[in-house]
Amino acid sequence: MPLDRKDVLTLEDMSAREMELILDTADSLKEILGRDIKKVPTLRGRSVLTLFYEPSTRTRTSFELAGKYMSADTVNIATQASAVVKGESLKDTAWTVEAMGIDCIVMRHPVSGAPHFLARICQASVINAGDGMHEHPTQGLLDMFTIRERKGTLAGLKVAIIGDILHSRVARSNVWGLSKMGAEVWLAGPPTLMPPGIERTGAKVTHRIEEAIEGADVVMVLRLQLERQKKGLFPTIREYSRLFGVDRRRLALAADDFILMHPGPMNRGVEIASDVADADHSVIIDQVTNGVAVRMAVLYLLLGGSPADMHRDLEAGGEGK
Amino acid sequence: MRLVIAGGLVADPEAGKAEVADVVIEDGRIKAVGPGLAGEAGAGTRKGETVIDAAGKVVLPGLVDAHVHLREPGQEHKEDIASGTAAAALGGFTSVAAMPNTDPVIDDRVGVEFVKERAAAVGLVNVFPVGAVTKGRKGVELAEMGEMAEAGAVAFSDDGRPVSSGEVMRLALEYAGMFGRPIISHCEDTDLSAGGVMHLGYWSTVLGLKGVPAAAEEVMVARDIILARLTGGRVHLTHLSTAGSMELVRRAKEEGLAVTCDITPHHIALTDEAVRTLDYDTSTKVNPPLRTEADREALRLAVREGLVDLIATDHAPHHLDDKDVEYDHAAFGISGLETAVGLVVTHLVGGGHLDWVGVARLMSANPARLLGLEDKGTLRPGADADVTVIDPEAEWTVDPETFASKGRNTPFAGLTLRGRVTETIVGGRIVVRGGRLV
User: Fold this and answer.
1) B280, B285, B323, B329: which to substitute to probe chain A, counting the most A Cβ within 10 Å?
2) Which domain CATH number covers B27?
3) What is the value of ipTM here, to two decimals?
4) Are residues B247 and B305 in the same domain?
5) Are the C-beta atoms of residues A209 and A193 closer than 8 Å to each other?
6) Residue B314 a catalytic site member
7) Could you tell me the pTM of the whole model?
8) Residue range of the domain that includes B30
């Protein structure tokens, strides 16, 4: 078995060995994205459903393209235009699509743990494409892939994650993934946006952004949900930006060859200054490309492909050139 | 009609001792308790006499659960008085206090009478209605406690919700004092708990679920204790779950305030880590939430030290559809009547935290006293012949499919527990025999 599991729900429960397998597989598959004809027959006859209960541009599109590049049949349910608006429960929706023969369900859901519920009641593989404040494992993997691509390794790097850690599924997946791969993770944000006990994961917590960025090899800026301000979690967007906004001056503290990341979509001028987002150190666009490669790897490994067959499959695809 | 429970270890909460004895019941009342009574009576020879051989078993005054939700009227798809009292009987409870958060809310004489009449018609055990503190449980205006007390309400509670207004709670404590009835307080600061679905701590962080801080409970425990001091009113703090709450209760009791409290079997048996271990299984979703290991240890210590007055199940049955959904959307509550004895024996008696006299105090005598039931929770001659017989060594596996309760929502499914109810006797009538409903 390439990945000895039915579902990919968290990086908390994934071993370093499994993550390495996914990253290595993504390395090989990324080559397809550079071809004229982006199609290999690897997943021919397999079906993938993207079921998104929250809006998404990059995650849903990249999963869909990842499936299509490997010849899977991909379908998409936009919950706004489905029986969900008629009050259909997740259980009934799951059983309905499963009855149509779906092999893999990629789900985004606003409730933490909803993919676990789905995985429990379905035979199909479930990939968590972001659940509530819990995890977003493929985002964590694509971030790790991007860092590894630039730095050659993850072990020993200082990674600073800045912003709203409390509500961030991206932060949680990165904390688990990066820690297991030997990176030193620093978290910076106001105490009101820092979840309790997070330091038990091994991550270091600070409320001084400078301390996190100092000497960092990677600076990862999280999206600030602007509606959090209305709930009183911080006084004003302006003060947040002053205390935790990532700008040129603060980035001067990072290692010379640091990279700057953001999972998108960005609030330019709030958590990240526009000029640094577009500057040399930024790998934000690489993250998007790598998202497709990593999702190809996850689909490939979950739906039965093995690394041994992969090179044969890639060559078979090459015939179509 | 004569019934003899012969040769069991009889735990007497008043005498504070447990010894092998026979319990003789006649005409629905305890006739006598003592060694050798079965022999003297010529067991099995008398006409109309029934003998239950309780050798190797423990005999307790019938268990009293001061906190259950029977859901009738209005939510009979979750539970009704017939199914809920059947669950109580199987769980060894001979009396239950039914919380008023039904639909409609039990907040007047008619509601109290309805529950009593239904219980008299279909109930397998005694049901004592708890009336609401405020009209509609809205926390604004006091309900007609006087008329409800006259009709048989044994206590008042807006359970499921706190009485959030300190002023309304002050008035309620003063007013209820007139009828000698306690206010059972669900301690929760709903600002601090808003949106929370599990304990706020490491596991809520890992699971990305909104947390309820221990402080949401403790702030209200402190408030209620201070209001009890102010009013001299009698407040019973129900389903306490944190180390901090126990510390506050300790100080209140040292001061001599009329404050009592209960804890639930599930808070003794599980911690917040169960939400992770059971992979977001919504049977772990309960209010107050399962707490940390440190809290669990503090509850056990409080039991040992006698700070905990009683154990109550907070039996909260739900329909499958209320639970078979995403975690945030699931209803709070655990169906607890049928696992309570097994959990208490396994976790408290088994752990050496409580002896059998202690069980009789915490699950029979003290809840009866809280609810003003003078002839219950005791085996003194003349008392109501409510008796529970437990096989302390019997091991059994929790199977919700066998529950009499309509609520199959339990995080203990598949778990093996020690200690099983074999007989439940209500008013001299055998309701459960050999672990089955008669």
Assistant:
1) B280
2) 2.30.40.10
3) 0.91
4) yes
5) no
6) yes
7) 0.94
8) 2-59+383-437
